Amino acid sequence: MKKQQQMYRDCPYEVYFENTFCGDCRNCPNYSNCVLMRYRASQNEKKRAKTKNVVRNRIIALCAVIALVMTSITVMASNAINTPSEYSVSDVNTRNSDVVITTLRYDDPTIVVTPEVNTESVTEPVSEETLPIVIVPEISAYGPGKLYYYDLNESEKLYLAKMVYREARGESFEGKVAVVAVALNRYFSNDRRFDRRSIYAIVTQSGQFADISGVTQGMLDSIPECMEAVEAACKGWDPTRVTFEDGALFFYSPKNMSEEALLSRSGVETLTIGNHNFHVDFNPDYAP
Questions:
Q1: CB atoms within 10 A of CB 5
Q2: What percentage of the chain's residues is helix, strand, coil (to nearest 5)?
Q3: Are residues 202 and 237 in the same domain?
Q4: At 100, which helix (H) or strand (E)?
Q5: Mean pLDDT in residue range 30-46
Q6: pLDDT at residue 76 above 50?
Q7: N or C: which end of the chain has fewer CB within 10 A?
Q8: What region, left, alpha or beta, does residue 247 occupy, with left being phi > 0 and alpha being psi -120 to 50 degrees?
């Protein structure tokens, strides 16, 4: 199955995506900056378009005001010829422009109109402090986030839910999520021990998880937490990261393990959630 596509093109780190970042921008240390830069670019584009509209509307309004003022001046000048007196028009302001008309007198042969337009920017520069907060998907050991960290399709989620049904349907919700997290950690790792061609390959790899072929939709419907645990893990909840920085890669039930299998895990750091112990690797002296 094709892995996640690169989110942004022309990235200077593009050559590292397949081997180092596993084809996922979110594994790149500059992912948060890229998201913020794209957000700022889109916001700036919107502000430029808005600025153009505001300037255009102000120019139209200014032209209308000037035309109105010129008409009024013409009428007043005509009346001044017939009735000698002082007429004064000053400080004419409008909502859309600042227009100042100099004092007009009947004996002044020159009518002066001086429009003074406010040349300040129509929009103030936006500082980083005024930008809205950009929520970036993150991995957490304590609960799911608001956004999906892992963008899986419905088929992939179904395979994981079936695996949870087989491996952890009797566990707590946290225990179910931890089992899903193990599968996801394997898929997005660089570990050659795992078949990372697809989520299906991870779930059905020989000798790793219980067989999911017999799990039906009716079985999953009877335990909704199986699919809910998959959704929580896809939103970045990995309970095993309480102990392991990059999450656990293995889990086992001590009650159902042979003595030889337990020896291979003796002396390694483990995290117990319900009836499962989670760990990252095996004892090198007894590794399978």
A1: 10
A2: 45, 10, 50
A3: yes
A4: strand 99-101
A5: 71
A6: yes
A7: C
A8: left
